[in-house]
Amino acid sequence: GSSRATFGVWTPMYGRNASLLPQSAAPTARSMPGIGRTTRGLRVQAVAAPAAPPASAVKQAHGFTLQREQFVREYDSVVALYKHDKTGAEFISVVNGDENKTFGVVFRTPVDNSYGIPHILEHSVLCGSRKYPIKEPFVELMKGSLNTFLNAFTYPDRTCYPVASANTQDFYNLVDVYMDAVFHPRCISDEKVFEQEGWHHELDKKDDQLTYKGVVFNEMKGVYSSPDSMYYRMVQQSLFPDNTYRHDSGGDPSQIPNLTYEEFKEFHAKYYSPTNARFWFYGNDDPVKRLEILDKVLSEFGPVDVSSAVDAQPLHKEPRRLVHHYAAGEAAADGGADAQKAYAGVSWVLTEEPLDVETELALGFLDYLMLGTSASPLRKALNDSSLGEAVIGGGIDDELRQPIFSLGLKGVKPEDADKVEALILEKLGELEKTGFSATAIEAAVNSIEFSLRENNTGRFPRGLSLMLRAVGAWIYDRDPFQPIQWESALDNFKARLASGEDVFGPLIRRYLLDNTHRVSTTLLPDPTLAKKVDAEERARIDGFASGLSEDQLASIAANTAELKRLQETPDSADALKCVPTLQLSDIDPKITTVPTDVTSSNGATLLTHDLFTNNVLYAELVLDMAALPARLLPLVPLFCDSLTQMGTASESFVKLTERIGRKTGGLAISPLVSAVRGRADPLAKLIVSVKATADKAGDAMQVVRDVLLTARLGDRVRFEQMIAETAADMEADVIGSGHSYAARRLSAQTSVAGWVREQMGGYSYLKFVRELSMRVEDDWDAVVADMEEIRAALLSRNGAIVNLTGDAKTLSAAQPHVEELLASLPPSGAGDAARWASTLPRVNEALTVPTQVNYVGQGGNLYADGYQLHGSAYVIEKHLANTWLWDKVRVVGGAYGGFCSFDPHSGSFLQLSYRDPGLMETVDIYDGSADFLRGLKLDKQEITKAIIGAMGDIDSYQLPDAKGYSALSRYLLGVSDDERQQRRDEILSTGMADFKTFADAISSVSGDAGRVVAVTSADKAKAVAEARPDFWKVTKVL
Questions:
Q1: How do residues 202-224 score in pLDDT, each as one tens digit?
Q2: How does DSSP assign 206-262, residue by residue?
Q3: What are the backbone angles phi and psi of residue 360, rounded to the nearest 5°?
Q4: 16 band by pLDDT with thresholds 50, 70 and 90
Q5: CA–CA separation, 893 vs 884, rounded Å?
Q6: By the 8 A CB rule, do 893 and 918 touch?
Q7: Which of 43, 286, 633, 729 has a beta carbon 3.0–4.6 Å from 458's, enabling a disulfide?
Q8: What's 1009's DSSP letter?
Q9: Which residues are marked as active site?
Q10: What pLDDT shows up at residue 339?
């Protein structure tokens, strides 16, 4: 994925496949300064039962010599650093009891231009190799592997290739494909791969208009359409004007066509050597076999003299200022709201030299204290200032060679830009003098320590999170063990705090207030910029074309045709046999179950799951939303935020936030809405999630009680801040993740649940939020009354559900506190069950925003036309995404992503594209999906591969808290273990007849029977409307 936020606060990072980076993929703890940020999301990852320290690492074997070994008690792991005798390659081997095994290889890849070479190479090396001479081994692995992670990332100075799997044979298969890919890729001998993934001139017929096309080229057009991305790019380049970071390793779309194939090949030859690599293995696989696997590949190579170290940016002697522009919507041209939406911030490079571990840790705590929550003083000062709509920057980022601190606001009036910097400096000066309260420090210590000890990275493999942390030091030739050992530094730091030492004031003074390497950045809206950029690209292409002869034009058209022919020619069944796959016998035919006891208490239902969670209690209180009138549904997300963002009857917002930090590991409140198969009414619940160490279970339940019963909902200033922040975030999101808005809009046309979700998170919600800000001005009392009406309808002990996950001792200790919480709730809520029998009109629609790419969706409801759910749908949906849509939308079409989704609860089937140069061409591809499935002739091995790929999703690796939550979800949706076993049996017995049945089903939601929603530019929407006058309704979003 190309989301800036995936790994750091602002460090750009690009991935090979957006659809493979789950939204919750961010690792939650990195090297020490990052700790502060890691606790903000408080993602969860429980640990396996601690094992005794494993046996010592082997000293010498398979061409490797042990350099260093340590037992890292923080992760119950033996960590060994090896050096390969022949090549000098370094390898870290982490041995522990985690079955979710991780491998990674990382190359240092600094750049001296913005042509995007490392990014294009990262895409290209996975398109076939010496041992796997097919078009896309990566896709074959997606189709038929049990992987728990499969992707690749490009950072500003390094490229990472990680894989993970809980199945040992599958893990070894993934490692083998990746090792061959990076060292012996097809792309360095086949220019067509470079043209496909990077860029090429596209000309279908000699008389057509010449264009640029390429997957990375279009991906980066999407990135450069996002004002948020442009702001962070501007910050990085302004902070580092003298080293590699002044360039864009992902590629600037205006620069990518400068890249030649020769330069591309030279970059691989220079940097993709074992000497320049760092290797990583983690988990419970055989540590000696790891050495054998690596040596088998590395022994072909010798040492290489490669200069890839990143130079430090010398610190400036005086502050600087920069102003740039971003492409704004049409509203900015007529003085509308967009005209006022500037970005303004201030950023520092903190140091030239590496920080010692205690300073890193102290800066991480300082970062959290100043910015970690909405109540943190520096963040609160920015929110309270009314200078902008949302905080940007997020504080310390330590992903690069030198740590930076960056902070600002977006949605700022251009004339107020200077005030943002002044406010930040003024508040820092105040915090240097006043410091932080004892309760704020206690909350920060508890939050950070809880996050570190819980070590919960959600769906992201623990081994990969640890690898990225270690690599953050390792690639700069620093100690890679330091970032994964924090226990003694934390103890020392806590002792310094306890002694009364002023730890934080001197840090603020030295690294921020007295630091002259400061850059003030302002990004202003320009409604003409998008057209200028398009015109410049067109002029460049036309200038090139005007110098071509008839024969040269014919040659480009012939090259385009040949590239498409190759892209559309599938690998033969025999060729595909080179990719190792598992067999059905490797799959357990029986479902896995979660231990669940169901009891009742005080009219509520209690679900408990006895699982080892390392002394942590995970709890969900589920309240029914069925009594809410439809008019109040869009207010629910802001109501949820308000419960924890305005304080309670007895404490301020700041004090409540501190109590949550001191007494829990995190509290979250959000709606859950889903269709229920066979039922017209949707499932609609409010979920209050809290986690805490077992000894603080009572405190956690008291926090939940106080928030639900006594939260103040009348703080108008705070509510206005929340509205502005929500609108700003959604406006950025619709440009960067338009496919999700198209998907919600389509789902809202065919199911009540889809309509409810769109009211609370789609374009309808954005419209509501914009109108709400005016309503707050005109009639604030009525808004407060609406929120109190929501609270009264929700709070009811009868019908409530409590879901608890922990070991028997933890569950037993929590029981009386849960009883107390339930007893405090009213016996029943106000109001009767409401009827939400609404859907959006079934129309085609263009949602227009300033963008250089498109997000195209098509779909409908399969159940409405009689399709009966069968387990084979899971297999066929994934196969369709990984074959037809991948090949046509991405490989040939040049989009960054093309995929489909089938919701078995509602029957909604959607086909979607991501950062797509095509629009109606993509709709034509969707219309061909059913015929593609009908024409398939898969042999037994190919069907087996498709089944295994689907099973990898069904049996995705889960940590204990996720297992408990999955059991709750199944309970709410009425999915029994018998039905789960039936679906599993159907998946495992999928045959060609099922493909034909599913093809017939999706025919009913494509062509004229389907509906299209696209997020696109106003010009492109208009061009479609002119060519097909009655095709769609055009809705201007930005």
A1: 999 888 999 999 999 999 999 99
A2: TTSPPEEE-HHHHHHHHHTT-HHHHHHHHHHHHH-TTSGGGS-TT--TTTGGG--HH
A3: -55, -45
A4: low
A5: 12
A6: yes
A7: 43
A8: G
A9: 122, 197
A10: 56
Q: CB pairs under 8 A, 24+ apart, for 320-323?
A: 320/238, 320/518, 320/519, 320/520, 321/519, 321/520, 321/521, 321/522, 322/234, 322/238, 322/519, 322/520, 322/521, 322/522, 323/521, 323/522, 323/523, 323/524
Calculated CA dihedral for residues 456, 460, 463, 466, nearest 10 degrees = -70
Give every CB contact of residue 1033 below 8 A, 6+ residues apart in sequence: 843, 844, 845, 846
Q: 145: which residues sit within 8 A by CB, 6+ positions away?
A: 165, 170, 173, 174, 581, 582, 948, 949, 952
Residue with tokens 């490692």: 175
Kindly report the number of other CB atoms within 10 A of residue 353's CB atom.
7
HSE (side-chain half, CA atoms, 13 Å) at 616: 27
Report d(CA 440, CA 727) in Å as an integer. 29
> Percent of the chain, pLDDT > 90?
89
Question: Among 633, 972, 643, 623, which Cα is nearest to 828's?
Answer: 623
| Alpha-carbon span 861 to 881, nearest angstrom | 18
Of 510, 889, 739, nearest to 1 by C-alpha is 739
Q: Rounded distance, CA 358 to CA 813, Å?
A: 36
For residues 355 and 402, what is the distance between their CA atoms, to the nearest angstrom? 9
Q: What tokens appear for 132 in the block?
A: 């796997």
| Confidence band, pLDDT 50/70/90 cuts, at residue 195 | very high
Strands 845-848 and 1033-1036, how do they pair?
parallel
Q: Is residue 413 a contact partner of residue 342, using CB atoms and an 8 Å limit? A: yes
Q: Are 466 and 473 in contact (CB under 8 A)?
A: no
Q: Is 884 left (phi over 0), alpha (psi -120 to 50) or beta?
A: alpha
> What does the CA dihedral 837, 841, 845, 848 come to, rounded to 10 degrees?
-50
133 burial class (0-12, 13-18, 19+ CB within 10 angstroms)? middle
pLDDT tens for residues 39-74?
Answer: 222 222 333 333 444 568 899 999 999 999 999 999
Q: How long a stretch of residues is the chain?
A: 1038
Instruction: Give the angle subtended at the CA of 448 by the CAs of 443 and 450, to the nearest 5°.
Output: 95
Question: Which positions ≥6 away from 719 have C-beta within 8 Å?
Answer: 638, 642, 646, 776, 783
**Around Cβ 249, how many Cβ atoms within 10 Å?**
26
- 75, two tokens: 């992760």
d(CA 733, CA 727): 10
The token duo for 341 is 């939406």
Instruction: Count CB neighbours of 348 within 10 A.
Output: 22
Give Rg (Cα) of the chain.
28
Given a contact cutoff of 8 angstroms between Cβ atoms, the answer to whether 621 and 688 are in contact is yes
Computed from CA positions of residues 178, 183, 186, 191, in that sequence, does the dihedral angle turn out positive or negative? positive
Q: Give the angle 673-699-806 at the CA atoms, nearest 5°.
A: 60
Between the two ends of the chain, the Cα-to-Cα distance in Å is 24
Q: Three-state DSSP class for 788?
A: helix
Please give the torsion angle defined by the CA atoms of residues 117, 120, 123 and 127, in that order, rounded to the nearest 10 degrees.
-100
Q: Is 363 helix (H, G, I), strand (E, B) or coil?
A: helix
Q: Which two tokens stand for residue 54?
A: 């494993």
Return d(Cα 993, Cα 785) in angstroms, integer. 57
Cα–Cα distances in angstroms (integers) from residue 505 to residues 37, 419, 483, 501, in the given order: 20, 23, 24, 10
Quick one: pLDDT at residue 680?
86
| pLDDT for residue 1033 | 96
Counting Cα atoms < 13 Å in the Cβ hemisphere of 76 gives 16
Q: How far apart are CA 694 and CA 441, in angstroms?
A: 22
- Is residue 21 within 8 A of residue 238, CB to CB? The reply is no
